[in-house]
Specification:
Blueprint lengths: L1 H25 L6 E7 L4 H6 L3 H4 L5 H11 L4 H8 L1 H10 L1 E3 L6 E4 L7 H10 L19 H6 L8 E5 L4 H4 L2 H4 L3 E3 L11 H9 L13 H15 L3 E6 L1 H7 L3 H24 L7 E7 L20 E4 L7 E2 L3 E4 L3 H9 L12
The protein binds zinc ion.
The site of zinc ion (ZN) has 4 residues, from α13.
């Protein structure tokens, strides 16, 4: 009888030991997780003020005007911006930080003078503008991104991944040299144990309209990223949406607005997962920005010459919240801010004050 109980206790101790071992293995260190997200060429005007009714009244938009006004217009400006980007204004505005509302002296600007994508993403990811980058060509970046630095750090090694709609990102991140896996353009998910959603996307992403060969629809990029996060638990994820800029270049204000609204919903979905999973909960920073601004009024579809953009940060222990008024921050501060949060560098005087 005694032997029977001893055997039972032995199993109980073994069970407890395995339980604790499993739990401690899941996140061995407390180094914070980073989710960096970019929306391509989204104007600060829509982020802070919602749809631009002047552009909605453009005669080209007759068939879509009713839909846009019904869904995104409001006489109250706070309700109006909430309708377009509910996650930004219900969640980030209250719990995080927003930069870039020029009307409140909140300045956020790119420092490169190219005002297009490769130089913009290079600046976001490396922490400085490179005047030698003067095209969007598929050329491997000579500069080292913060993703590469993290991937070379013992706490983040092989826990960094990027999912991008635009097919130039493998070159910007220099996947060959950095070792950071980059799934971009119409690449399929690759892993020995594909989930049902990944299998579905692999066989269907090119069956939906391929509007641009070089830019995958964001719904596929987003869901591949979300599946990867659920399965692999990366500590650093870079997610680059792309539709907004391309719809804007086509002059489709309705599609630009719908894409922006959808991006906000996708980010909300990602944040819900982060906050519901103990590996990520309360130890993850979400940093969201854009690579360049756009023109105003009838020139909105091009990039214009404004250097004004915007950024949003959500995460644990932030001091001042809401729109950070009377401040000037720059795109080249994003990478140093990530270096400071993660502690991979001590030289971070250029980081954004959190
Ligand atoms: Zn563009």
């Amino acid at each position: 009888m005694l032997e029977f109980y001893l055997k039972k206790i032995k199993y109980l101790i073994l069970f407890i030991a395995v339980f604790f071992l499993f739990n401690s293995c899941e996140n061995k260190d407390n180094s914070p997780n980073i989710f960096l997200i970019t929306l391509d060429g989204v104007r600060w005007q829509e982020v802070f003020y919602g749809i631009d009714t002047v552009l909605v009244n453009n005669p080209k938009l007759t068939s879509e005007k009713k839909y846009l006004l019904e869904n995104f217009d409001d006489s109250n400006s706070e309700s109006k911006r909430k309708k377009l980007m509910p996650f930004f204004w219900n969640e980030i505005f209250k719990k995080g930080k927003l930069y870039g509302d020029l009307n409140q002296n909140s300045y956020f600007s790119i420092t490169n003078n190219k005002i297009f994508s490769y130089p913009g993403y290079n600046e976001i990811l490396t922490g400085s503008a490179d005047s030698l980058i003067n095209s969007n060509s598929k050329v491997y970046n000579k500069n080292v991104t913060v993703l590469e630095k993290l991937n070379n750090n013992k706490f983040y090694k092989n826990k960094v991944a990027a999912f991008c709609s635009w097919d130039v990102f493998p070159f910007i991140i220099n996947d060959k040299r950095s070792g950071v896996p980059v799934n971009a353009g119409y690449m399929p998910a690759t892993s020995p144990n594909l989930s049902e959603i990944e299998k579905f996307i692999n066989s269907n992403q090119r069956r939906a309209p391929v509007i641009w060969e070089s830019v995958r629809l964001d719904v596929f990029t987003h869901n591949l990223a979300l599946e990867y996060v659920k399965k692999e638990k990366p500590k650093v994820l870079y997610l680059a949406y792309g539709e907004t800029d391309d719809f804007a270049h086509m002059g489709d204000y309705d599609q630009y607005i719908k894409a922006l609204h959808n991006n906000d919903k996708m980010i909300s979905e990602l944040w819900s997962f982060i906050q519901s999973h103990k590996f990520y909960k309360d130890n993850t920073f979400l940093i969201i920005t854009t690579d360049h601004g756009r023109g105003i009024e009838e020139k909105w579809s091009g990039h214009g010459n404004s250097k004004s953009t915007w950024a949003a940060i959500l995460g644990p222990n932030l001091n001042e919240k809401g729109i950070i008024k009377d401040s000037q921050n720059f795109t080249n501060q994003i990478a140093p801010t990530i270096e400071k949060i993660t502690g991979i560098s001590t030289n971070n005087h250029n980081s954004i004050k959190l």
